[in-house]
Amino acid sequence: MPQNDLTYRDFARFASQTPDEIARDCDVSVFRATGPGGQGVNTTDSAVRMKHVPTGIVVTARDSRSQYRNRLACLEKLRLVFARKARPPKVRRKTQVPRRAKEKRLQDKRMQSEKKTARRRIDRATRTAAEPTDRPISQGTRTSTDRESSQ
Question: Where do the segments described as Disordered lie (predicted)?
Answer without folding.
Answer: 85-151
